[in-house]
């Protein structure tokens, strides 16, 4: 009897370790958010493969390509900041819908024009990812929504699959994009530029599908203050400020009269982040500056560009190689939550990200394709394993009402620090020193890992949790009581 039950117990254990038990009960909204991220990263991956080559085909120099990517990231900072600030007031679903529409429009512009300024405006106002990774307001809003929907002790599992499906989406996009470009180039009368433009039409279609899927998200995704205001028949047209994480207990006329003033001070809502959260935010931003600057120097599109220049690879083969590296990274991400439960959030982040930084610095060393691919695979397996623990860590060190703003600020400042990287790499590439960018980027990211362990390797005090909708069941009430949490042994 015991032997017969062994496979069942093993399957149950594996389900718990991989977070499958949590995902089974996660609910429709969580599934939609994760699926829309999958198709979004599919589009990002397909475009990242050909973005630098798209500009090269139109005669732009390496310096112009790097400058374009830098200005795109700077523009994304502004747009993401505006949308992140209004997310909880405008509504999270509306913000995601607006981002999806912008994504579709920017793809259409890239598919129809060759004007440098028009392309730049489309990339800034719309959503074009130079790196194949997350860009725009989506991630901050989605992570805040997931934290709102999922209990604290279940978030690491959900964030893990949120990352896994994203990586799988990028991998699929790279593979499909590479094969599509090769097949389109083989059509009589089609130029390389025509094939690249077809990829941008696919990008536009994905934006439209994402917008449609966003319409199926329920009101449960919204912040509690947004729902409260929406349910008021005609009492007060003003909305609560973004960072008002808890409902006010003061319903007196004086408090109601103060509401317009709060609305007018909305744009200063970042200053209302609690003192302890501000201290944490400053530390994190100072560290993420180093990591993101390194990432900005070698965005995925420039890695593709480097590989194509160094080894003169066909687009289909290049897409297949890059797709494979992203696919194997999915295997590592599946176990990110389990690793965080055993090592702790910070330790899991550092012990996976540090080796990947070293592999990045060594990438230009091999003269052969095989060893270069091995370094790419090693980096890819470990590089994104820190994302789920990082999201879980951010969600427990700030107040619930601050999550969207804090995560938004973190992602925006990361993008801001990335923005100077492509320009530096463009200058280096134009002077035949492309390899220096990889060494510098790997060194910056390794420094970030060591400082992160030094700053946050101990205990933190989790912020008081808000009530969680019954999306993830089986969580006892005492799970939401404020207790000291050891980030060395928490998930």
TrEMBL record:
Annotated membrane topology: Multi-pass membrane protein
Region Disordered, annotated ranges: 228-260
MF term (GO), any: transmembrane transporter activity
Keywords for the protein's UniProt record, in alphabetical order: Membrane, Transmembrane, Transmembrane helix
Annotated compartments: Membrane
InterPro entries: MFS, MFS_dom, MFS_trans_sf
Stretches assigned to the Major facilitator superfamily (MFS) profile domain: 29-460
Primary residence: membrane
Bilayer-spanning residue ranges: 30-55, 67-87, 96-129, 159-184, 196-217, 281-306, 318-338, 358-381, 433-456
Keyword Membrane included in the entry's annotation: yes
PANTHER family for this protein: TRANSPORTER, PUTATIVE (AFU_ORTHOLOGUE AFUA_3G04000)-RELATED (PTHR23520:SF5)
Protein name: Mfs general substrate transporter
Species assigned in the record: Alternaria burnsii
